[in-house]
Amino acid sequence: MQRIITYGKKVGATLSMGSALCAVLLVATVPYAAATTVAAPPGTVAIYHQATPSPGTGLAGRVSPETASGCVGTNPWNNVQDCIYISGSGPYVAWMEGSAFIRNYEIVGHIQLYGPSGLGLNSSDVLMQPGNRYYILWEPNGDVVPGQYCSQTWSPNGSSGYYSWGAACETVS
Q: What is the DSSP letter of 23?
């Protein structure tokens, strides 16, 4: 069981994953309210909501400052800004966060955090409102397989599958 640090008011949802890992999908802002520690069983996710955040703001200071981060969709006309934040050193990763900041209009979608060795965490599809930041959190607190890790937001695209709003990636070495 992974230890999950969460903030805000719990709303609830499910998570589909390719491996027995835990993650949390959250809606958040900075500064954060007092932390609540939640032990989440594999295959579950909690959704949280707080006031409007600034785009491109990760969980810096929550556990430790991120050691790698990057965002795509940073222009004001981009509706979704995808970001990834990683805290660790070398192959050790304390936590990894994939996020989506919604700017102009609501979407239905989910966040995927993926990387080497089959890491594939997917939140369930949720209604994402403008001015809110949604994120999925993975806390391996140990060595991970080196390589490129990415966060990507997806929206259902009718019967043809999903539309990607962009992928933000960083390398763990």
A: -
Q: Of 59, 62, 151, 52, whose CA–CA distance to 102 is shortest?
A: 52
Query: What pLDDT, on a 0 to 100 scale, did the predictor assign at position 142?
Result: 94
Place of tokens 């805000």: 8
> Read out DSSP for 56-120?
T---TTTSS--SEEEEE--STT-SEEEEEEEEEETTEEEEEEEEEEE-SS-EEEEEEEE-STT-E
Q: Which pLDDT value is given to residue 99?
A: 93
Q: Look at residue 6 in the predicted model and tell me its pLDDT.
A: 34
The single-letter code of the amino acid at 152 is: Q
Could you give the CA distance from residue 81 to residue 46 in angstroms, rounded to a whole number?
21
CA atoms of 165 and 173, how far apart (whole Å): 26
What is 3-22 written as a DSSP string?
EEEE-SEE--EEEEESSS--
* Residue stretches of the chain with pLDDT short of 50: 1-51, 59-64
Residue type, 15: L
**CA atoms within 13 A of residue 129's CA, in its CB half-sphere:** 10
Cα gap 140→6, rounded to integer Å: 15
DSSP 39: E
pTM for the model: 0.70
